[in-house]
Specification:
The structure is a homodimer. By secondary structure, chain A is α+β, with helices and mostly antiparallel strands. Chain A contains 5 helices and 8 strands. Chain A has an 8-stranded antiparallel β-sheet.
Chain lengths: ~200, ~200
């Protein structure tokens, strides 16, 4: 399996370059589990599905703690048939497969409740795309059921779901949505945007 | 059918609010064909599939002409079974259905070649997600064949394809990818990022 993300950070500041360069060291604790490649549009992060969201969380929080209005966008994917297998992507643990939706929702909610509180309020919105299956909406509706019980659910929007809360639980919710839905080895993509310090929220 | 986009503009400037507010009037010529709703994360643009990309193009170009490093992200969708039909989304013209891939590629290339030149160099990367079908990679590989012949192809990246060139042809390429691939009335989503004035490109 191949899993990873194309990640872009957008600090809305004249000093966006300096803010990003300062934040990148937040990835240091994760580097031995990840492979990184940066170009002018995004940074590719390749690694196990469970590690992607904690690593993105630390990168985003380090940037947002500048106090500057910052957003991060990520195109996250696992199991794409067009990508070669890579040992660095081996899942850390088996996914919660074979569970009923009710148990999956309860397990996900427990994981979100146990997430660290990072004292940073954020908003997020994301879309989940289970690919290569005819009943993709079943997986999406199952995930929405989890989200509504996650404690971070904000509201449904056209094409996506909005979350809100502390960065710890919000990123845990995103990670649970990514690893807990869609077939274990199936192709799943996620389009996610995270925002902090928006003047619209003041 | 329902079609639209959640669009976010990111000018990397202390004056991001002013730059965005100045740019929004670029949507005025499109307003009678679109419905807009803005919140703190994105602006929902609902309208016919063929109108979405020209409208986003004009919005992005108006912002990028500030000279500030600006990116735009859009989650674009048509035919989602979870969204109600809306008359404002009625396609302006029938899609290029029933054509061979070779003819589809040639027709798309002609449309891109005829696009207006806007004298603004941009980079883009995007992922196309044909949903609810078992052979989604066939549609994706067909689209990649078109992209490689579009005149705006830059390179393949993990999880996405990068384009580069003048804003006119690049947005025409994106629009052709969105309307020309996936089933006519099927569920198709696109995750697209556009960038201008990046210091990495200087």
């Amino acid at each position: 399996m191949f899993s990873g993300a194309q990640v872009s950070l957008y600090p809305m500041s004249d000093d966006f370059v300096g803010i990003i360069l300062n934040a990148i060291e937040a990835l240091d604790p994760w580097r031995d589990q990840l492979r990184l490649e940066t170009d002018s549009l995004s940074t590719l992060i390749v690694g196990p599905p469970e590690v992607l969201f904690p690593a993105m969380r630390d990168l985003f929080c380090a940037t947002a703690r500048s106090g500057i209005h910052t957003t991060m966008h990520a195109t996250v994917s696992r199991g794409c048939p067009g990508e070669p297998d890579d040992p660095i992507c081996t899942p850390v643990a088996g996914g919660p497969r074979g569970m009923s939706l009710a148990d999956l929702v309860a397990a996900g909610r427990d994981r979100v409740a146990a997430a660290p509180i990072l004292e940073l309020d954020i908003a997020a919105q994301f879309s989940l795309y289970p690919l290569g299956i005819g009943h993709h909406m079943d997986e999406i509706y199952g995930c929405i059921e989890f989200l509504k019980n996650s404690g971070t659910y904000d509201r449904s929007k056209n094409f996506c779901t909005a979350l809100r809360g502390d960065a710890g639980p919000v990123f845990e919710t995103l990670g649970q949505a990514f690893t807990g839905f869609g077939f274990d080895t199936g192709h799943l993509a996620m389009d996610v945007t995270v925002s902090a310090n928006s003047p619209s929220d003041r």
